[in-house]
Every structure is written in structure tokens, then in C-alpha cells.
Amino acid sequence: MTPPEVVILRELLEHPAGFVSGSALAARLGMSRVGVWQHMGRLRAQGFAFEAVRSRGYRLLRQPAGLNLLLVQAHLRPRLRKTDILCLPEVDSTNDEAERQLAAGRRTPFVVLTRRQTLGRGRFGRVWHSEDNGNLYASFAFRPRVEPGRMSTFTLWMGANLCELVANFCQVPPGIKWPNDLYFGDRKFGGMLTEARVDADQIRDLVFGLGLNVNSPAGALPAELAARATTLADRVGRPLDLSRLTAAIIGRVLSAYELFVEDGHRDTFADLWNRFDLLRGRPVTLVQGGRRITGVAGGIDDEGSLLIRGENGRPQRFRAGEVTLEPG
Ligand code: BTN
Fold first, then answer.
1. Which pLDDT belongs to residue 183?
2. For residue 225, what pLDDT band results from cuts at 50, 70 and 90?
3. Is the minimum distance from the CB of 143 to ligand 1 under 6 angstroms?
4. Which CATH class is domain 283-325?
5. What's the CATH fold of domain 69-276?
6. Is the shortest distance between the CB of 155 and ligand 1 below 6 Å?
7. How confident is the model at residue 200 (pLDDT cuts 50, 70, 90)?
């Protein structure tokens, strides 16, 4: 059942400028106006503030700035309102929590959100700094039951979808740096970490982790990262509504996943990727194991491998590795 607080928030968010009468809320919830008042008290305790005007009703005056599960649920589109979301004040890593929940048999899909990670991690086991500072830390858990080879473009597809969502949400175009980094210009604002457990010929389960720098203040990151990182708020010039953004991301990730496993993404993938590909046509160095390859990035192939043209002009394909952009 939808919590009454979520129903109240939905009604108020649908009338951002106007008032919603206490009797309309009571009718919507099937309870007395005193009951509505009690639920609004619970919302107040979470940092919401309301204006109550006699004979007009209620209006939302303030909402909590940090991640708030009730607000996320209130912003979800109708089709997604039953989405299973676990929202924790703190966790080691949302990817690890998702894996524990999968191992315990939780039904998929589900989402793990947190305000702070104590052991947030990125590719190559690097630390993902995850303070409680208005950023997004999320993991999405699935049981795709497809053969592992089908998943080679999964993170790339998700990244391109997220770029489109961020472009629409922020009105500032981002880019994706193969295979899992989200950028504005030459600064990183997000990263994806996909982890799968594979049976003999099938993916048993898959966790898609996403970290986005949304509202963290300048200076929140260690100095060596600060020079290469940015936040959505920084690019947009004002803090963003983290809960609304989170709801939009949940919607996009779940629909992109469905298209992907049904194989319905093939018609649009190349165009979407090319629209946000940060590397194409630019000089890059790729490090893979002990090898360093330099050349010009030439997009990706059907399997999601990065193409790099060396001096002889012939493209070489790379399934994995770390890319840096060279000046020039
Ligand atoms: C990278 O850029 O190397 C990927 C970073 C992925 C970070 C996210 S935050 C949510 C999820 N939980 C983790 O521990 N990592 C991912």
C-alpha cells in the first residue's frame, strides 16, 4: 500500500502554486482531516514545511534538501509506483547491499539508495568518495537470465541513456567517456559500476551501480580529484532537487533495462552513443594490463569495444582498459 505521506506529497506536488484542501486530501486518503493532519506532522518531522490557510487548504513550502524516500516515491511516474526501493541512511556500498539482498532472494528489480557509503568503490577497486553531501549513490539489481555475451554493451547503453536524461533534466549536455565515466567537458561528474554473477551460460544476477556528483559543495573532494571533477549543481548554477532527479533516474534506468533485455535497444543504441561519445575523433591513450596504446578514438563496434586508430590508420578493438584524453 502506498504510504499516506506519499499520497499527500503527490497531491501537493501536482499543485505547486495552489492549495489543496484538507477535505480533498482526506477524501483521497479515505480518512478524517485529523488523520491527514497527523500524517502531515510526520512529514514535518522529516523536514517538510506546509502553509495552512483556512478555507483554502495546504501548500508545500519547503522540502528536505537531502535524499528523501517519500519524495522519491511521490515523484515516480504511475507505472513505477510499485518499484521496490530500499533507502538506507548509510551503507558500506550500495552494490554490496544489492548483492546481499539478491543472495537473500529479494525479488528483482529493486533499487538500493543511500545518503552515504563508507566503502563506496569504483572501477579497478578505487575509492568512490561518498559523503552525505547531496550526491547520488544508487544500485539497481536485476536477474536478466540472458547469456553473458549479450551484456557487453549494457553499461554503455545505460550511460548513453543517463546522458540523455541529464541533458534533459539539466539543460546542459554531458558526455560519456568509454566505458563508464560521465563528464561535463573535461570534468567527471559520475561513474557506473556494473557487476554480474554468471552461471555456466547465463547471467544469474546483475547489479548496476551509479554514483553522481549532484549537489556536493566545491571542496568536498580531495584536492587531486577536485581539479578533475564537477557536479551537476556546479554546471547548472544552482542546487538540484536530488529526490526528483533520483526518481527520474530510477524511471530511466528501469525502462532502459527492459528495452535492453528484450533486445529492443539495437535501433537506437548507435545514434544515442554517438550523440554523447566524448572520445570520438580525439587523441587518446588506452592502458590495458601493461600495454599503452595511443591513437585516435573511432567510436565503438557492435560489441561495445573501443576502436582506436594508430599511426597506420587501421582501427584496433579494445574490450577493456582505461582511457585518457591526450591534449591536442
Ligand atoms: C567509477 O567511476 O569507477 C565507477 C563509480 C561507481 C560508484 C557507484 S556509487 C553507487 C555504487 N556503489 C558503489 O560502491 N559504487 C557504485
1. 97
2. confident
3. no
4. mainly beta
5. BirA Bifunctional Protein; domain 2 (3.30.930)
6. no
7. confident
Q: In what order do the strands lie in the sheet with 181-184?
A: 84-88, 110-114, 136-142, 203-212, 187-198, 181-184, 175-177
**Nearest CA, atom 14, ligand 1:** 120
Query: Could you count the other beta carbons within 10 Å of the beta carbon of residue 124?
Result: 6
Q: Cell 478555507: give the residue.
A: 55
Please determine, looking at this structure, whether the domain spanning 4-62 carries the CATH number 3.40.50.720: no
Exposure of 306 by Cβ count < 10 A (0-12 exposed, 13-18 middle, 19+ buried)?
buried
Contact between 175 and 278 under an 8 Å Cβ cutoff? The reply is yes
Q: Whose C-alpha lies nearest to ligand 1, atom 11?
A: 209
Tell me the pLDDT band of 95, cut-offs 50, 70 and 90: very high
Q: Ligand 1: which of 67, 86, 95, 133 to mutate, judged by most atoms within 8 Å of the beta carbon?
A: 95
Residue nearest atom 15 of ligand 1, based on CA coordinates? 121
User: Are 293 and 305 within 8 A, CB to CB?
Assistant: no
Read off the pLDDT band of 299 (50, 70, 90). Answer: very high
Q: How many angstroms does the Cα of residue 124 sit away from the middle of ligand 1?
A: 11
| Domain parsing of the chain, residue ranges | 4-62, 69-276, 283-325
- Cβ contacts of 238 within 8 Å, gap of 6 or more: none
CA–CA separation, 188 vs 126, rounded Å? 15
Q: Band of the pLDDT at 224, cuts 50, 70, 90? A: confident
